[in-house]
Amino acid sequence: MESSDLINSIADKTSSIVFSDKDDPPAEEQNPYSHFPIIAKILCDKPINSKALKSTLTKSWGIPSNTDTNQIEPNTVAFLLEKEEDRTCILRNNPWSFRGNLSVLQPWLLEKALVDVDLKKFQIWVQVSGLPVKLINRKVVEKNWKQYWKVHLHRPCH
């Protein structure tokens, strides 16, 4: 086939292509199981068993045991939830633990890259009873929190 015949053949095959000036990207096919992901990072010095983590947390959270999960790195797993209500409930009842180790949970908004999910910060409620009145202030808590964390909360896995 000569080059002019090849060009004419390609032109004939592409003549039905319609171009658009719209800036909108094509509609993506949505996977119902990945709309509401949560990233869970277990604060533990040793690698954890991701299957045991999935089993324990799905039971604790009351979500289906066949929920899809993906291990992102050691001690970090993405749970791909079917329902937004499940994610809302799980995050509202935060913090959660796995075998005595704190889990940091963050929603993964699909418009963000995974590296943009901040797993270094979390909120936690602390109640301390029996303190003298003069020690009940923010300055004392902030000064002593890091020392308390190292001694009492950051334990290795069992």
TrEMBL record:
Query: What top-level branch of life does the organism fall under?
Result: Eukaryota
Location of the DUF4283 domain: 38-109
Identification of the protein by name: DUF4283 domain-containing protein
